[in-house]
Amino acid sequence: MIEIQVLEQDEKKIKVMIKGVHRSYLNAIRRFAISEVPTMAIDEVIIIENSSIMYDELLAHRLGLIPLRTDLTRYVLPEECECKSALGCPRCRVLIVLDAEATDKTKFVYSGDLKSEDKFVRPVSDSIPIVKLAPRQAIKLEAYARLGKGKEHAKWQPTTASVLKPISEEEDTHMLYIESSGSLPASEILIKAVEILHKKLSDFSEKVKGVR
Predict the structure, then answer these.
(1) Is 212 a member of any domain?
(2) Residue 33 located in a structural domain
(3) Would 13 disulfide with which of 111, 122, 179, 192, CB 3.0-4.6 Å?
(4) 193 touches 33 (CB < 8 A)
(5) Which domain covers residue 108, as residue numbers?
(6) Do residues 33 and 45 both lie within one domain?
(7) pTM for the complete prediction?
(8) What span, in angstroms and rounded, lies between the C-alpha atoms of 144 and 131?
(9) Within the chain, where are the H helices?
């Protein structure tokens, strides 16, 4: 009999004790939480103006690593979107704009300065530093965020920690701990990882049936 007990839970983390499930399946859930559960991240940046000391490529890289709040009910992966367009559409991408300028004194640009066309899809924190502008320096750009998976790039990983620890090997009892980057609630990451594993096993089972 499978038993699940929630030991600790809030928006950012969840710790559950699971009994009666083999370690291999639980480890798959742990790995899927890292690599298969999709989240939003900036993937394309169009630089309109950049007079800062930071190179365009480094600026784009830093923007991509800022965790964004994600709504998996309203957005789909680009490869699954009906638009089939390289440019994307409102179902598979979000426009985010940055327009910052330092006038007569130094200005720090933070993630809170990013303006998204979707009020929900925004940085998980407004205080992530992006760049420091000297007087008369400016940055103006358009960025496009899309869903992706951690197996493509670390910027799409929804977790900062995903750990499986044995409690009792004889009873197949383990503790699974998941900590979110803030893009998704920790409980949603866990549930989504289980759903993805179930779908992959179902698809595999169907394919195996055809091998006669």
Answers:
(1) no
(2) yes
(3) 179
(4) yes
(5) 40-149
(6) no
(7) 0.92
(8) 19
(9) 23-35, 56-64, 186-209
